[in-house]
Design a protein that fits this description.
single chain; 6-stranded mixed β-barrel; 26% helix; Vcp-like ATPase, Chain A, domain 2; Ubiquitin-protein ligase E3A N-terminal zinc-binding domain-containing protein; Ufd1-like; ubl conjugation pathway; AZUL_sf; 37 strands; 20 helices; alpha+beta; Jelly Rolls; 770 residues
Length: 770
């Protein structure tokens, strides 16, 4: 049985202005191509043991029908059409005979068109000039065929490009590929991980004899020739296979040059005398003396400082190519500062380079640290590679201090009362010598009215003096003009979203603010991800702006979870607001009513007597079913209970009541049995307690009681007192005794659960609603 897929079609290449950007070797085909591929797909037999199709009489719990089903399935052969995975195609350019293998991205192209990636167009030698020019304001309208209503004609759009032939051809799984670098000096530490990720994310196939370009960091790239593959042939498939990659130099001369460049790179490694400094952690007031090679960065970070202070960063250097970049480390700002991605930058040629950071700067909100990078601009490409290999590092001094004065007053230039100002050099000179001074000054000096600087007319500074027509920058040599134009007026393309902007400051602001590829630390999935993917809402979406979240966080925060306080199902992005409501509820809760018995650890949720303030357990022995409108009988019962406790005791081994004979014995068991008290002494001790008690049913009592209680209540009371004393001693979270009693009562006297309950539901002493 033939299981190969046979299909081919001639399609027009979609022009770049109507085609989406595709990575690697990916193509996009029209929907009709998928229908044709399914129709041409071979019919393959499916093993009955792997099929889940059963007869209508099948009962897995009936041994007779189960045996009959097994016997019947042995004679069943299911056949169905299946497309191979992955789908691979051979793209041919009939104009020059060149071909490339490609993988499918999706079936969403226009009818009779194919969308090719930039790599495929370059390899097939399809030039932009072959496409018809785009006509502004033209809109394409689909007209239906009168003979077949509702069907769009198969003619390609009028602005389609040259035609290519697309063949469905399955490639074998590759096991080996040999790459030859096109340039000397490639270090495996630089491109090895990049190559693995580039192949995995962008390629389905590899075509023998083609050029593979691997993008690197800092706008560099690595180019390799696909020299040999195994199994041998025109190409291989690199999906779902273990691929061995071998890197071989093009020639012995290139191998020697590569080895020489690696040795030179090792000699200029960070930390060596001829290399850049290592960098590290900075402290306030520390003066760091270091060096940086052209084209490299030295990274520092500041973690400890008072967030209310005004910080000043000062970089002193004699090399005008040295720049300073700073970015905060925060949840929405994770990248190290670079020339094309930074929050603050100083490209000036002046020394020292200074920056000031105030605590009111919104970019510092939530910053865990400050990232600083010192960078030396690379030398001009016109000097050649041999000159760049002999570059010497630039020396600099870096220091971060705290501005205690915060004064911006500038001292005005002072002059003598009889001085006048020269109209040429703007200097103040005595009036009696003004004519002599102006005669000499006009012959020898030139005054620039834009920057108000004075130069000698025959000096090279004046001959090379320049002013930028686009901004207020100026300089005195051609190198500074070239550097200024490269930094501020050269167009740069964002590597994440292909936006083109003028100047490094503009592209850096874009990459640290609205760029979809800006890396953030998602507060919900806790991963380092781009702030916006293709399926996420736009950055200017009203919901994104009002929520203060990035598009990724808005979508990822739509997942739900269970609140650990109330067990409700809440969206992740609403959890902070939901917990804030819990916090407000916690702070606004009234203090709990606890039992006034100083030996009891219960609350008055189910009180036994509202007026006395005793729980059911403590009030139980005082309750009688008699009419007592003024509470006189109740006072006598309270007094008799005190007398009984003091004279005979409760007899409980756990009792620690100081107004109980047994409790006193338990408390003083180590020092012997206490002396017995007479009735007169007992009455003198009870009388102050009874004098404070209000037993009238219409007036609430506030006086404490000292009754013996059960072991559970006493243990909860001891636990609450211990937690209250411990929280007050430690400081920070100090809880009132009433909340500690409520926590112990709610958790059944469990120590850890009581502490957890207090954290969730009890306000801290001195804490108020904000």
């Amino acid at each position: 049985m033939d299981t190969s897929l046979s299909w081919s079609s001639q399609l027009a290449v979609a022009p770049p202005h109507r085609a989406p950007r595709l990575p690697g070797d990916k193509i996009t085909l029209p929907q009709s191509a998928l229908e044709q591929l399914l129709a041409a797909a071979p019919i393959q037999a499916v093993s009955p043991q792997n099929s889940r199709v059963y007869t209508s009489a099948f009962d897995p719990f009936n041994p007779h029908t189960f045996a009959a089903e097994s016997q019947a399935r042995q004679h069943i052969e299911q056949r169905q059409q299946q497309l191979p995975h992955p789908l691979t195609f051979r793209i041919e350019n009939p104009q020059n005979g060149r071909f490339m293998y490609a993988g499918i991205r999706e079936f969403s192209a226009e009818e009779n068109e194919v969308v090719l990636s930039a790599l495929l167009q370059e390899s097939l030698e399809i030039k932009d000039a072959e496409f018809p020019p785009q006509r502004t304001g033209e809109t394409q309208t689909a007209t239906t065929d009168p003979e077949t209503p509702g069907v769009i004609p198969s003619d390609p759009p009028s602005d389609s490009g040259p035609a290519v032939t697309v063949h469905a051809k399955q490639l074998p799984k590759g096991t080996y590929v040999r790459l030859r670098p096109l340039e000397a000096g490639y270090d495996p530490e630089d491109w090895k991980s990049l190559l693995e990720r580039h192949l995995r994310e962008n390629f389905t196939t590899l075509t023998t004899g083609e050029i593979l370009t691997v993008p690197g960091t800092r706008n560099q790239s690595f180019r390799f020739l696909l020299d040999k593959v195994y199994p041998e042939g025109e190409g291989i498939c690199v999906v779902d296979t273990d691929l061995e990659v071998d890197i071989v130099a093009l020639s012995e001369e290139q191998a020697r040059e590569t080895l020489q460049k690696r040795l030179e790179k090792a000699s200029r490694a960070p930390g060596t005398t001829s290399g850049s400094s290592i960098g590290g952690t900075l402290s306030l007031g520390e003066n760091v003396a270091a060096q940086v090679l052209p084209g490299e960065y030295v990274d520092y970070e500041l973690r400890d400082w008072n967030r209310q202070d005004i910080l000043e960063v000062e970089l002193t250097t004699d090399d005008p190519t040295v720049c300073l970049f700073v970015s905060p480390l925060a949840a929405h700002q994770q990248s190290r500062p670079r020339s094309d991605v930074h929050v603050w930058g100083n490209f000036s040629n002046e020394s020292p380079k200074q920056m000031q950071f105030r605590p009111t700067n919104v970019a510092l909100e939530g910053a865990e640290a400050l990232y600083l990078s010192v960078h030396a601009n690379p030398a001009s490409t016109s000097t050649g590679s041999s000159a760049s290999s002999q570059q010497t590092p630039a020396q600099y001094h870096l220091r971060i201090t705290v501005n205690l004065t915060d004064t911006n007053d500038q001292t005005e230039e002072s002059h003598e009362p009889g001085d006048v100002q020269c109209q040429n050099c703007q200097q103040w000179v005595p009036e009696r010598t003004l004519i002599l001074h102006e005669n000499f000054c006009l012959r020898n000096n030139a005054f620039c009215s834009q920057c108000r600087n004075v130069f000698q007319k025959r000096s090279p500074e004046w001959q090379n003096h320049w002013h930028c027509p686009h901004d207020s920058s100026h300089g005195n040599d051609a190198a500074s003009k070239e550097s200024h134009d490269a930094i501020f007026h050269k167009f740069h393309e964002c590597i994440d979203c292909a936006v083109r902007l003028e100047g490094l400051p503009a592209i850096a602001q874009h990459r640290t603010t609205v760029c979809p590829g800006k890396l953030i630390l998602c507060r919900f999935c806790h991963l380092l991800v781009p702030q916006k993917s293709e399926s996420d809402p736009d950055l200017h979406d009203p919901e994104v702006i009002l929520s203060g979240l990035t598009p990724h966080e808005l979508v990822d925060g739509g997942r739900t979870t269970e609140c650990h306080l109330c067990n409700k199902i809440i969206r992740l992005r609403d959890m902070a607001t939901h917990l804030r409501h819990h916090d407000l509820e916690r702070l606004s809760r009234p203090p709990p009513r606890t039992c006034l018995n100083q030996n009891c650890g219960r609350t008055l949720a189910n009180t036994g007597n509202e007026s006395l303030g005793l729980c059911n357990i403590c009030f139980g022995s005082l309750y009688v079913d008699t009419y007592d409108p003024e509470g006189k009988a109740l006072r006598r019962r309270i007094e008799r209970r005190y007398l009984s406790q003091m004279m005979t005791g409760c007899g409980k081994s756990w009792c620690q009541n100081e107004y109980c004979k047994t409790g006193k014995q338990n408390m003083q068991s180590t020092s012997g049995t206490p002396a017995a008290m007479s009735v007169v002494e007992i009455m003198q001790l009870i009388r102050p307690l009874m004098g404070a008690v209000n037993a009238h049913p219409d007036a609430p009592n506030t006086a404490p009681f000292y009754f013996c209680t059960d072991e559970t209540g006493q243990r909860r009371r001891a636990l609450a007192e211990m937690i209250a004393a411990e929280s007050a001693a430690v400081g920070g979270k100090a809880y009132d005794l009433g909340w500690c009693i409520a926590g112990a009562d709610a958790t059944g006297g469990d120590l850890e659960k009581t502490r957890e309950w207090l954290t969730k539901w009890a306000p801290i002493q001195g804490e108020a609603l904000q």
